[in-house]
Specification:
single chain; mainly beta; Immunoglobulin-like; five-stranded mixed sheet; four-stranded antiparallel sheet; 15 strands; globular; disordered N terminus
């Protein structure tokens, strides 16, 4: 894995030390942004490779939006703060209460922000769309609710107008290893039961 601290995977601001802040010149008011498609497997296995995909669109008729952002949160326990792909675990002596439900292998390219659960889609012109993809590995068995929402900005000055701006998934992660078999070419085929034939009815 390329990221040792998956829950805090976006602590580094993209372009840190550069000349301009990501939220510079963010406009105020309501803007039409929406989620046009989203997918995440409802049933997963520990150590399986999965992807969360969220496609967003700038539905403004004549205005480009610079900081279209997507926030991801796993439903926390009780009143704990929500984390992107984990939950807090209470206990004495814990230096970091965050524990991963999913290990973040790779986030949306170029989407890092200073927020621990928010990624940028970047600048979207009128009517333009972009799909954000998170490559994840389930780390803890159980049933979890994970939500997403799109915003036209990072600071709250730009707000999303009413529409399809958010959604959620309920995901069951099994502690059993993902089914796999060795194919005819000697490669491991994950998600295929041993003895089954690909493409069979």
């Amino acid at each position: 894995m390329r990221r040792a601290l998956p829950i805090l995977a976006v602590l580094v601001v993209a372009g840190c030390g550069g000349d301009a802040r990501q939220d510079a010149d963010e406009p105020s008011g309501e803007f039409k942004v929406e989620v046009v498609d989203a997918s995440f497997p409802a049933r997963q296995h520990v150590a399986e490779n999965v992807e969360l995909k969220v496609k967003v669109r700038n539905s403004e008729s004549d205005e480009s939006l610079r900081n279209v952002a997507v926030t991801v949160e796993t439903k926390p326990r009780g009143s704990d703060a929500a984390l992107a792909f984990g939950q807090n675990k209470r206990g004495a002596g814990l230096a970091d209460a965050g524990r991963p439900v999913w290990v973040l292998d790779e986030g949306p390219k170029g989407g890092e922000t200073a927020y621990v659960n928010t990624w940028l889609a970047g600048t979207l012109g009128p009517g333009r769309e972009k799909e954000l993809v998170w490559k994840l590995v389930p780390a803890r068995a159980g049933t979890y609710d994970i939500s997403y929402r799109v915003s036209p900005g990072l600071t709250g000055k730009a707000r999303a107008a009413e529409g399809d701006t958010a959604g959620s998934f309920t995901v069951v992660i099994s502690g059993d290893p993902v089914p796999a078999r060795v194919g005819e070419d000697g490669e491991v085929e994950r998600g295929v039961e041993p003895g089954s034939t690909l493409g069979s009815d």
